[in-house]
Specification:
Oligomer: single chain
Largest sheet: 4 strands, mixed
Number of helices: 4
Number of domains: 2
Number of strands: 4
Radius of gyration: 14 Å
Bound molecules: zinc ion
Length: 103
């Protein structure tokens, strides 16, 4: 898995935690969140934030060639790219970040 993908997953996990534990936790986690974001490409963060306003989980797995978020099957070439070099791709249908997590 690529470094950036790992960061995205980490960020999403942190946001879920913040979401579940409310405002006091948000303050507590903000420093941690800044550190994660700093290490990511800005355009990726922008895209993540935009997706987050729409979906609860902007980063999902590709399972059996299907996007976990919208259940639409990806093109074989997209699935192949994801599987072989672990690069980050976005779903053609819903725009969520997709990652491959074993099979
Ligand atoms: Zn999708």
């Amino acid at each position: 898995m690529k470094f950036e993908t790992a960061r995205l997953i980490q960020l999403q996990a942190l946001d879920t935690e913040i979401h579940q534990s409310g405002a006091s936790a948000a303050a507590l986690h903000s420093e941690k969140r800044c550190k994660i974001i700093e290490a990511m490409p800005p355009e990726m963060v922008t895209r993540y934030e935009r997706l987050k306003s729409r979906y609860q989980r902007p980063v999902v797995r590709l399972i059996g060639g299907v996007c976990e978020g919208c259940r639409v099957r990806m093109a074989a070439s997209t699935a192949y790219r994801l599987r072989t070099n672990g690069s980050l791709v976005t779903c053609d249908h819903c725009g969520r970040f997709l990652y491959f997590d074993g099979d």
